[in-house]
Structures are given as C-alpha cells and as structure tokens.
Design brief:
Strand order of the largest sheet: 1-3-4-5-6
Number of domains: 1
Shape: elongated
Structural class: alpha+beta
Order of helices and strands: HEEEEEHEEEE
Oligomer: single chain
Number of helices: 2
Protein name: Prepilin-type cleavage/methylation-like protein
Keywords: Membrane, Transmembrane, Transmembrane helix
Length: 220
C-alpha cells in the first residue's frame, strides 16, 4: 500500500510577502520620499531667496545710513535735478528730483563735497548706488576720490520713483529742506523688489553758505 504523506498547512501569518505586496510597498515608499524631498527643496529655495534679499537690503541700508549722517551734518543740499548740468550721466527726473545728489557736508569733522548717483552697473541689467567726494579746494589741492560702489542690484530710476527728491521750505533749497531717498533693491534669486525709503532732515543753513559751494563739480 503506497505511503501517504500529509503536508501540514503553513500558518496564515508565516506565508511571507507576495511580489504584488512588495511592489505596492515600494511604490508607497517612493511616493512618500518624493513628497518629503519636494518639501525640502522648497524650503531651500525659500531660504536662498531670503538670504539673497537680506544681502541686497543690508548693503542698501548701510548706504542709507551713510547718506543720513552726511545730510544731518550737511551745510547745503543741492537740487538733484540740477546735477545733470554738471555730470552727463546724472538724470533730471523732474522738479528737485533726480538720479544724483550732491551734499556739502561736515561729516567726520571736515568739510567736503559728496555726490551720490544711481547708475547702470558695469555688468548691465541692474543699477548700482555709488559715491565720490572731493575737497572744496580740489582745483588747487586735489583730493577728488574715485567712484565707489556702495550697493548693487538696484532698479533703474524713473520720474515716478526718483532715488533723490528734495523737499524745500519757504526759504528755498538753501533753507529748511527734507531729502527723500527711495531705492529699490532686486532679489536676484526671486526677482522680487524690496523698497527702502528714508526721509532725512538737513539742518538749516545759517552760516552764510550759498549755492556756489562745491562748484565746479569735477569731471566724472
């Protein structure tokens, strides 16, 4: 009589994982990882944009702080609209406003003439804020500095967003006045604009200074 062997049924919990179940698990895992990586990349992009904006804004804020000190110690603030008469690259953007600003100041204890300009950058595409200074007696003693770039990545000035606007009182530009500075920095990573504005009061001119100070203007 042939021998009959009975195969014991494997318990349901010991049957292992089928190929279909393995594929489903791998698909779910891959989907979860894709979502996590996407979120991580988005966070990195946001962080990079914030850092780019912070650097651009920080440089522009430092420039505004320099202008603030010079204006508050200034003897004469000249009309930004008139700077185009002295420097060909300066723009007259309307009454008492323009892309350049000249200040006769006693900042840091010595009298000097300071000129600020928002001009096209050397690399193109954006504008930069730059500054130079000279001694009131530069024609005989020299002392004209080169242009120094203080902030980069700025928007081009327009008549509706002039970087320098001089508000004057009844006494005209050599009396009470308020300088309004408007600079727009570009976050290169995101292309978004960051506007920085300041209103700076210059002290009254009570020491006999006139519009002949800081003239002639050295060639740029």
């Amino acid at each position: 009589m042939p021998e009959i062997r009975l195969r014991r049924a494997r318990p349901r919990g010991d049957r292992g994982t089928s190929l279909v179940e393995l594929l489903v698990s791998m698909t779910l895992f891959a989907t979860a990882m894709a979502l996590i990586m996407g979120a991580a990349i988005e966070v990195l992009h946001v962080t990079k944009d914030a850092e780019g904006a912070a650097a651009s804004v920080q440089n522009t804020r430092q420039a505004l702080a320099m202008i603030d000190r010079q204006v508050r110690s200034g003897n004469v603030l000249f009309s930004p609209a008139d700077e185009a008469l002295h420097v060909s690259t300066c723009q007259d953007l309307g009454a008492l406003q323009g892309s350049c600003m000249r200040i006769f100041t006693q900042s840091n204890g010595s009298e000097k003439c300071v000129q600020w300009q928002v001009a096209p950058s050397a690399t193109g595409g954006t504008h930069e804020l730059r500054m130079r200074s000279w001694s009131p007696t530069w024609q005989t003693t020299g002392g004209v500095s080169d242009w120094a770039v203080v902030a980069r990545g700025l928007r081009e000035p327009t008549s509706t967003s002039a970087p320098f606007v001089l508000d004057v009182g009844p006494a005209g530009i050599y009396g009470e006045r308020l300088l309004r500075v408007h600079l727009v920095a570009i976050n290169e990573a995101s292309g978004k604009d960051v506007s920085l504005d300041a209103s700076i009061s210059g002290r009254n001119t009570t020491y006999g200074y006139t519009g002949s100070e800081c003239l002639p203007v050295p060639a740029a």
